[in-house]
Amino acid sequence: MIVARDVPALRAALATLPRPLALVPTMGALHDGHLALLRAGQRQAASTVTSIFVNPLQFAANEDFDRYPRDDAADLARLQAAGCNVAWLPSVEAMYRPNRATAIEVGGPSEGFEGAARPGHFRGMATVVAKLLHQSSPDLVMFGEKDWQQLQVVRRMVADLDWPVEVVAVPTLRDPDGLAMSSRNRYLTPAQRTVAPGLYRVLLETAAAGLASAALAVGDTHLRTLGMTPDYLALVDADTMRPTTAPSGPARLVAAVRLGTVRLLDNVGVPP
Ligand code: AMP
Asked: Ligand 1 within 6 A of 36 CB?
Protein backbone atom coordinates (compact mmCIF):
# COMPACT_ATOMS: atom_id res chain seq x y z
CA MET A 1 0.00 0.00 0.00
CA ILE A 2 1.30 3.43 -0.94
CA VAL A 3 0.79 6.20 1.63
CA ALA A 4 0.45 9.64 0.02
CA ARG A 5 0.56 12.84 2.08
CA ASP A 6 0.43 15.51 -0.63
CA VAL A 7 -1.38 15.87 -3.95
CA PRO A 8 1.63 15.22 -6.27
CA ALA A 9 2.43 12.00 -4.37
CA LEU A 10 -1.22 10.96 -4.57
CA ARG A 11 -1.45 11.57 -8.30
CA ALA A 12 1.85 9.73 -8.92
CA ALA A 13 0.59 6.73 -6.92
CA LEU A 14 -2.79 6.63 -8.64
CA ALA A 15 -1.24 6.87 -12.11
CA THR A 16 0.30 3.41 -11.61
CA LEU A 17 -3.01 1.72 -10.71
CA PRO A 18 -5.39 -0.14 -13.01
CA ARG A 19 -8.84 1.40 -13.49
CA PRO A 20 -11.62 1.52 -12.52
CA LEU A 21 -10.64 3.24 -9.27
CA ALA A 22 -12.87 3.51 -6.19
CA LEU A 23 -12.42 6.29 -3.60
CA VAL A 24 -13.45 5.70 0.04
CA PRO A 25 -13.56 9.05 1.88
CA THR A 26 -13.26 8.76 5.69
CA MET A 27 -12.25 10.76 8.73
CA GLY A 28 -10.25 7.82 10.10
CA ALA A 29 -10.63 6.00 13.44
CA LEU A 30 -11.56 3.20 11.10
CA HIS A 31 -14.08 0.53 12.10
CA ASP A 32 -15.71 -2.33 10.25
CA GLY A 33 -18.29 0.04 8.72
CA HIS A 34 -15.50 1.90 6.93
CA LEU A 35 -14.01 -1.42 5.84
CA ALA A 36 -17.40 -2.43 4.39
CA LEU A 37 -17.07 0.62 2.10
CA LEU A 38 -13.57 -0.46 1.11
CA ARG A 39 -14.71 -4.04 0.42
CA ALA A 40 -17.59 -2.79 -1.70
CA GLY A 41 -15.06 -0.67 -3.61
CA GLN A 42 -12.80 -3.67 -4.09
CA ARG A 43 -15.72 -5.69 -5.48
CA GLN A 44 -16.67 -3.02 -7.99
CA ALA A 45 -13.30 -1.56 -8.99
CA ALA A 46 -9.77 -2.76 -9.84
CA SER A 47 -8.07 -0.35 -7.43
CA THR A 48 -8.96 1.48 -4.22
CA VAL A 49 -7.85 4.68 -2.52
CA THR A 50 -8.99 5.48 1.02
CA SER A 51 -8.70 9.03 2.30
CA ILE A 52 -8.31 9.82 5.98
CA PHE A 53 -8.85 13.48 6.71
CA VAL A 54 -10.54 15.06 9.71
CA ASN A 55 -11.96 18.03 7.86
CA PRO A 56 -11.95 21.18 10.00
CA LEU A 57 -14.42 22.89 7.63
CA GLN A 58 -17.26 20.56 8.55
CA PHE A 59 -16.99 21.06 12.32
CA ALA A 60 -18.58 24.10 13.94
CA ALA A 61 -16.62 26.02 16.59
CA ASN A 62 -18.51 24.27 19.42
CA GLU A 63 -18.03 20.77 17.98
CA ASP A 64 -15.49 18.02 18.60
CA PHE A 65 -12.82 18.71 15.92
CA ASP A 66 -9.99 18.78 18.47
CA ARG A 67 -11.11 15.68 20.32
CA TYR A 68 -12.24 13.70 17.24
CA PRO A 69 -10.43 10.33 17.50
CA ARG A 70 -7.26 10.06 15.43
CA ASP A 71 -5.12 6.93 15.13
CA ASP A 72 -3.20 6.96 11.85
CA ALA A 73 -0.94 4.01 12.73
CA ALA A 74 -3.85 1.68 13.53
CA ASP A 75 -5.81 2.96 10.50
CA LEU A 76 -2.91 2.35 8.11
CA ALA A 77 -2.45 -1.17 9.50
CA ARG A 78 -6.16 -1.90 8.95
CA LEU A 79 -6.11 -0.54 5.40
CA GLN A 80 -2.95 -2.47 4.56
CA ALA A 81 -4.41 -5.71 5.96
CA ALA A 82 -7.62 -5.12 4.01
CA GLY A 83 -5.71 -4.77 0.73
CA CYS A 84 -6.28 -1.07 0.04
CA ASN A 85 -3.94 0.16 -2.71
CA VAL A 86 -3.40 3.79 -1.70
CA ALA A 87 -3.95 5.62 1.60
CA TRP A 88 -4.42 9.38 1.15
CA LEU A 89 -3.56 11.24 4.35
CA PRO A 90 -3.25 14.95 3.64
CA SER A 91 -2.43 17.38 6.43
CA VAL A 92 -4.77 20.34 6.87
CA GLU A 93 -2.05 22.47 5.20
CA ALA A 94 -1.82 20.09 2.22
CA MET A 95 -5.60 20.27 1.81
CA TYR A 96 -6.28 23.98 2.33
CA ARG A 97 -4.21 26.92 1.17
CA PRO A 98 -4.17 29.80 3.67
CA ASN A 99 -5.75 32.12 1.08
CA ARG A 100 -8.42 29.67 -0.11
CA ALA A 101 -11.65 31.39 -1.12
CA THR A 102 -13.83 28.67 -2.67
CA ALA A 103 -16.57 26.55 -1.14
CA ILE A 104 -19.32 24.30 -2.44
CA GLU A 105 -22.85 25.15 -1.38
CA VAL A 106 -25.47 22.48 -1.99
CA GLY A 107 -29.08 23.48 -1.32
CA GLY A 108 -31.99 21.03 -1.48
CA PRO A 109 -31.18 17.90 0.53
CA SER A 110 -28.72 19.76 2.79
CA GLU A 111 -31.58 21.80 4.28
CA GLY A 112 -33.00 20.75 7.64
CA PHE A 113 -31.94 17.92 9.97
CA GLU A 114 -28.11 17.80 10.08
CA GLY A 115 -28.03 21.00 8.02
CA ALA A 116 -30.11 22.76 10.68
CA ALA A 117 -28.42 21.12 13.69
CA ARG A 118 -24.91 21.77 12.33
CA PRO A 119 -24.76 25.08 10.42
CA GLY A 120 -21.97 25.01 7.83
CA HIS A 121 -21.49 21.25 8.16
CA PHE A 122 -22.63 20.28 4.66
CA ARG A 123 -20.83 23.21 3.05
CA GLY A 124 -17.59 21.97 4.63
CA MET A 125 -18.35 18.36 3.76
CA ALA A 126 -19.24 19.12 0.12
CA THR A 127 -16.15 21.30 -0.26
CA VAL A 128 -13.80 18.57 0.94
CA VAL A 129 -15.56 15.83 -1.04
CA ALA A 130 -15.29 17.99 -4.18
CA LYS A 131 -11.57 18.39 -3.52
CA LEU A 132 -11.10 14.66 -2.81
CA LEU A 133 -12.86 13.86 -6.10
CA HIS A 134 -10.65 16.28 -8.03
CA GLN A 135 -7.48 15.08 -6.36
CA SER A 136 -8.05 11.40 -7.10
CA SER A 137 -10.44 11.42 -10.14
CA PRO A 138 -12.06 8.11 -9.17
CA ASP A 139 -14.61 6.20 -11.26
CA LEU A 140 -16.60 5.29 -8.12
CA VAL A 141 -16.93 6.93 -4.74
CA MET A 142 -18.29 4.98 -1.77
CA PHE A 143 -20.58 6.48 0.89
CA GLY A 144 -22.35 4.85 3.84
CA GLU A 145 -26.12 4.85 4.20
CA LYS A 146 -25.40 5.53 7.89
CA ASP A 147 -25.13 9.22 6.97
CA TRP A 148 -28.21 9.26 4.75
CA GLN A 149 -28.47 13.02 4.35
CA GLN A 150 -24.77 13.29 3.51
CA LEU A 151 -25.26 10.65 0.81
CA GLN A 152 -28.11 12.66 -0.74
CA VAL A 153 -26.08 15.89 -0.60
CA VAL A 154 -23.17 14.20 -2.39
CA ARG A 155 -25.50 12.68 -4.99
CA ARG A 156 -27.06 16.13 -5.62
CA MET A 157 -23.63 17.77 -5.97
CA VAL A 158 -22.31 15.10 -8.35
CA ALA A 159 -25.44 15.32 -10.52
CA ASP A 160 -25.57 19.13 -10.51
CA LEU A 161 -21.89 19.45 -11.44
CA ASP A 162 -22.03 16.70 -14.14
CA TRP A 163 -19.28 14.83 -12.34
CA PRO A 164 -18.24 11.64 -14.17
CA VAL A 165 -18.20 9.54 -11.02
CA GLU A 166 -20.66 6.95 -9.71
CA VAL A 167 -21.79 7.46 -6.12
CA VAL A 168 -22.20 4.02 -4.53
CA ALA A 169 -24.29 3.65 -1.34
CA VAL A 170 -23.21 0.98 1.15
CA PRO A 171 -25.68 -0.36 3.78
CA THR A 172 -25.04 0.49 7.43
CA LEU A 173 -22.89 -1.97 9.34
CA ARG A 174 -24.13 -2.60 12.89
CA ASP A 175 -22.87 -4.19 16.05
CA PRO A 176 -24.71 -7.46 16.84
CA ASP A 177 -27.13 -5.56 19.14
CA GLY A 178 -28.10 -3.21 16.31
CA LEU A 179 -26.07 -0.09 17.16
CA ALA A 180 -24.75 1.47 13.93
CA MET A 181 -20.96 1.45 14.03
CA SER A 182 -19.48 4.91 14.42
CA SER A 183 -16.12 6.40 15.37
CA ARG A 184 -17.92 8.35 18.10
CA ASN A 185 -19.37 5.22 19.81
CA ARG A 186 -16.13 4.95 21.79
CA TYR A 187 -17.26 7.99 23.79
CA LEU A 188 -20.29 6.15 25.18
CA THR A 189 -20.01 5.12 28.83
CA PRO A 190 -20.74 1.41 29.47
CA ALA A 191 -24.22 2.38 30.72
CA GLN A 192 -24.91 4.53 27.64
CA ARG A 193 -23.59 1.75 25.39
CA THR A 194 -26.28 -0.61 26.71
CA VAL A 195 -28.98 1.98 25.97
CA ALA A 196 -27.67 3.11 22.55
CA PRO A 197 -29.06 0.18 20.46
CA GLY A 198 -32.53 1.42 21.50
CA LEU A 199 -32.28 4.05 18.75
CA TYR A 200 -32.28 1.40 16.01
CA ARG A 201 -35.08 -0.54 17.76
CA VAL A 202 -37.25 2.58 17.93
CA LEU A 203 -36.55 3.33 14.25
CA LEU A 204 -37.62 -0.19 13.26
CA GLU A 205 -40.74 -0.05 15.46
CA THR A 206 -41.69 3.37 14.13
CA ALA A 207 -41.17 2.32 10.52
CA ALA A 208 -43.29 -0.79 11.12
CA ALA A 209 -46.06 1.30 12.74
CA GLY A 210 -46.93 2.88 9.41
CA LEU A 211 -46.68 6.39 8.12
CA ALA A 212 -49.04 8.23 10.47
CA SER A 213 -47.45 11.14 12.32
CA ALA A 214 -48.77 9.57 15.57
CA ALA A 215 -46.12 6.88 15.09
CA LEU A 216 -43.43 9.57 15.14
CA ALA A 217 -44.78 10.98 18.41
CA VAL A 218 -44.75 7.49 19.96
CA GLY A 219 -41.19 6.94 18.71
CA ASP A 220 -40.09 10.29 20.14
CA THR A 221 -41.54 9.33 23.53
CA HIS A 222 -39.77 5.95 23.43
CA LEU A 223 -36.44 7.65 22.74
CA ARG A 224 -36.95 10.01 25.68
CA THR A 225 -37.92 7.09 27.92
CA LEU A 226 -34.55 5.54 27.08
CA GLY A 227 -32.82 8.71 28.30
CA MET A 228 -32.09 10.04 24.81
CA THR A 229 -32.83 13.60 23.72
CA PRO A 230 -34.00 13.54 20.10
CA ASP A 231 -32.79 16.36 17.82
CA TYR A 232 -35.20 14.95 15.25
CA LEU A 233 -37.11 11.81 14.32
CA ALA A 234 -38.67 12.36 10.91
CA LEU A 235 -40.02 10.66 7.83
CA VAL A 236 -38.48 12.14 4.67
CA ASP A 237 -38.45 11.60 0.95
CA ALA A 238 -35.36 9.40 0.51
CA ASP A 239 -33.81 11.61 -2.20
CA THR A 240 -34.87 15.18 -1.47
CA MET A 241 -34.86 14.90 2.36
CA ARG A 242 -38.15 16.82 2.43
CA PRO A 243 -40.42 15.81 5.32
CA THR A 244 -43.38 13.81 4.09
CA THR A 245 -46.44 12.11 5.52
CA ALA A 246 -47.56 10.45 2.30
CA PRO A 247 -44.46 9.49 0.32
CA SER A 248 -44.96 8.94 -3.39
CA GLY A 249 -41.64 7.07 -3.67
CA PRO A 250 -38.91 5.68 -1.43
CA ALA A 251 -38.92 7.20 2.07
CA ARG A 252 -36.49 7.15 4.97
CA LEU A 253 -36.97 7.46 8.68
CA VAL A 254 -34.05 9.55 9.95
CA ALA A 255 -33.06 10.34 13.53
CA ALA A 256 -30.41 12.09 15.57
CA VAL A 257 -30.39 11.89 19.35
CA ARG A 258 -28.13 13.06 22.10
CA LEU A 259 -27.13 10.48 24.69
CA GLY A 260 -25.01 12.21 27.29
CA THR A 261 -22.38 14.11 25.29
CA VAL A 262 -22.60 11.77 22.28
CA ARG A 263 -24.78 12.46 19.26
CA LEU A 264 -26.07 9.27 17.61
CA LEU A 265 -27.32 9.26 14.01
CA ASP A 266 -29.24 6.47 12.34
CA ASN A 267 -31.90 5.84 9.69
CA VAL A 268 -33.92 3.03 8.15
CA GLY A 269 -35.83 2.57 4.91
CA VAL A 270 -39.63 2.72 5.02
CA PRO A 271 -41.57 0.40 2.75
CA PRO A 272 -44.18 2.20 0.62
P1 AMP B 1 -16.74 9.05 8.74
O2 AMP B 1 -15.34 8.59 8.91
O3 AMP B 1 -17.58 8.90 9.96
O4 AMP B 1 -16.82 10.42 8.10
O5 AMP B 1 -17.41 8.06 7.68
C6 AMP B 1 -16.82 7.83 6.43
C7 AMP B 1 -17.76 7.05 5.58
O8 AMP B 1 -18.05 5.80 6.21
C9 AMP B 1 -19.11 7.75 5.35
O10 AMP B 1 -19.53 7.53 4.01
C11 AMP B 1 -20.00 7.06 6.34
O12 AMP B 1 -21.36 7.09 5.97
C13 AMP B 1 -19.45 5.66 6.29
N14 AMP B 1 -19.82 4.92 7.50
C15 AMP B 1 -19.64 5.32 8.78
N16 AMP B 1 -20.15 4.41 9.64
C17 AMP B 1 -20.68 3.43 8.87
C18 AMP B 1 -21.36 2.20 9.15
N19 AMP B 1 -21.62 1.81 10.40
N20 AMP B 1 -21.77 1.43 8.11
C21 AMP B 1 -21.52 1.82 6.84
N22 AMP B 1 -20.87 2.96 6.50
C23 AMP B 1 -20.46 3.75 7.50
From this structure: yes
